[in-house]
Amino acid sequence: MSSGCKIAELPIDNVENFEIDSIKVFSPNNEPLYVNFNINGGRIDALVENDGITGKFFNVKFVFPKGITPLSITPDMSKPIDFKVPVIVDIQYNKTIKKTYTFTLNEEPLNPAKYFIERVDVLNDDNSASNIKLSQAGNDYIGLSYNQSAGKRYKLKLTFPSKITPLSVTPDPNALTDLSKEVIYTVKYDDQISKTYSVKIGNYNTNAFTRKIVRGVWVSDVGSDVFATKANIVECVNICKDIGINTIFVVTYNDAKTKYKSQVMKDYMGVEIDPKYAGRDPLAEMIEAAKPHGIKVVAWFEYGFASVYGDNSGGALVAKYPSWASRDAAGNITEKNKFYWLDAFNPEVQQFVKKLMVEVVEKYPDLAGVQGDDRLPALASNGGYNASVTARYKTETGRTAPSNYLDSHWLQWRADKLSDFGEYIFKHIKSLKGEQMVSWSPSPFSWSLQNYLQDWPEWLRRGIVDHVHPQLYRYNFNDYKASFDQAMNNMSPFNAKELIFSPGILVGIGSGDSVTPEILDQKLAYNRQRGIEGETYFYYERIRKNKGFQEVIKKYNK
Fold first, then answer.
1. Would you say residue 2 has pLDDT above 90?
2. Which of 533, 444, 440, 538 is nearest to 484 (CA)?
3. What is d(CA 389, CA 414) in angstroms, rounded to the nearest whole number?
4. pLDDT of 530 strictly over 70
5. What pTM did the predictor assign?
6. Number of neighbouring beta carbons within 10 Å of residue 535
């Protein structure tokens, strides 16, 4: 009977109903922090994001189930609590129910990714804003001044996220500095985290580069033995000279291999040149053969941000650098038409591509310029779902990246980021050699935007292109005419369009001719009728093998 008496003496409240529902944690400045917690009996174990503030003081708020309001909580939760050691928390739910917890709260390790410069502004000596806009990839900033005297000095204004106050920045960004050569700034964010940033402002003499009519041809080693011997390269140049070609766009990088001796590729991949050309340098040989004839040679970076063709593993680059792979909404490596893509928004990938392009400009004094095509700056539009990219989109726009990769806002945001990279490349090249040509060969607009995030009218608006070669690859005249007219409409707001615009014309691919000489004749006649005196052909091998193509091209290049 005694046991029955004990049951009768229990409180009518169910103890299990009295529990903490959730926990919110704030910095001493009352900024909300992400927290992951676990309540197990009398233990509370929590891991909170690092707030970047020295010490382990945090404000804590317990949230209880609806209808439950404790009489008291000890210690006082209205003040910051020091969690240097576990804290004993007593919660008096009512007169009869009290619970005690041992509350252990730890900070996650410092995350270097959370420490960054939000904005860099270039100031004149009187602290007024200059007209120089810096372009950025990772921790690398590049800007251009225009037609200014040498030795001009500037100050920098660095803006950091609201919770970040660095301990020091050296050298002093507020000191007048000659930035015409790269200056390295070291930002010490914390005793554990320091980062370096490079800033360069090149002076671009706009008179250094003069646009002239481009009558070009793409020279590729795919489906062609043009690079097999030096004699073949000489033959290529002689044919180009005979038919009036003045610019050769020579493949320089494809399938994760270079057609020249590249220290960059050796550093990244351990192989300095495509093994087929070991002991040679086809790019140097092409430049050497073309120079006596006044034919310009431009380094064409065919693969750009594409990693590999036909290999769903992502190829050699992704094998060595897995984080470089672009991801689609399902988490797979981004693929379109059997090309597998690198993450074009990844600063490491951007640095890799930039280093290759800068390398050829610095290595070959007689090189005329560089070119990207429908893979640079570009990304298949079903890509861009890497966590870092979607997080950035969320931070900048407040929106969640939609699963529909053709969503107009998401599409344009990614395209704008690629336009930023194009601007970044343009400024780097012009800061090295103002006379260098920077040309792009995108797909026709707006197909280029919908499929490869290439908003090339925006490139024209920004003034980051010397020549543009939209790939008007059409098999009959009427389709070509329609594509040409559309491209000319896109060009219409811009001055010197007759010099900027050198449309890409398809004559054939590795497997054979795509048009007849008669159709090619119609296309060129229409170009001349519309005031366009030059075009760029894809590609050399079909022209070499078809005398009819040579005769038509020569006819219109007189």
1. no
2. 444
3. 9
4. yes
5. 0.82
6. 26
Concatenate the DSSP letters of all residues of 487-531 into one string: HHHHHTTSTTHHHHB--EEE-EETTEESS-HHHHHHHHHHHHHTT
Residues 343 and 490 in one domain: yes
| pLDDT confidence of residue 5 | 41
Triad 524, 529, 530: Cα angle to 5°: 100
Between strands 168-170 and 183-188, the pairing is antiparallel
CATH number of the domain encompassing residue 134? 2.60.40.2340
**pLDDT of 281-304, one tens digit each?**
999 999 999 999 999 999 999 999
- Contacts of residue 99, defined as CB under 8 A and 6 or more positions apart, other chains included, come to 18, 19, 42, 90, 91, 93
Domain with 346 in it: what CATH number? 3.20.20.80
What are the strands, taking DSSP E only, across 108-239?
Answer: 119-123, 135-137, 140-146, 153-159, 168-170, 177-178, 183-188, 194-204, 216-219
**In the chain, what are the helix, strand and coil shares in percent, each to the nearest 5?**
30, 25, 40
Rg of the chain over Cα atoms, rounded to whole angstroms, equals 31
> Which of these, 480, 417, 466, lies nearest to 437 by C-alpha position?
466
User: CA 124 → CA 151, 154, 380, 384, 493, distances in Å?
Assistant: 13, 5, 41, 37, 33
Considering only CA atoms, which of 251, 247, 250, 252 is closest in space to residue 294? 247
Pairing verdict, β 119-123 and 153-159: antiparallel
Boundary of a domain, candidates 181, 204, 227: 204
ω before 539 within 30° of 0 (cis)? yes
What pLDDT, on a 0 to 100 scale, did the predictor assign at position 12?
Answer: 45
* pLDDT tier at 13, thresholds 50, 70, 90: low
Q: Tell me, yes or no, whether 139 and 229 share the same domain.
A: no
Domain that holds residue 192: 112-204
- DSSP codes joined into one string, 51-77: -S-SS-EEEEEEE--TT---SEEES-T
Counting every residue written for the chain, the total comes to: 558
Pair of tokens at residue 418: 């690629």
- For residue 134, tell me if it sits in a domain: yes
Please name the residue that has the structure tokens 């926990």.
Answer: 23
Q: Is 488 left (phi over 0), alpha (psi -120 to 50) or beta?
A: alpha
From the number of C-beta atoms within 10 Å of its C-beta (0-12, 13-18, 19+), residue 239 rates as middle
Helix (H) or strand (E) holding 99: strand 98-107
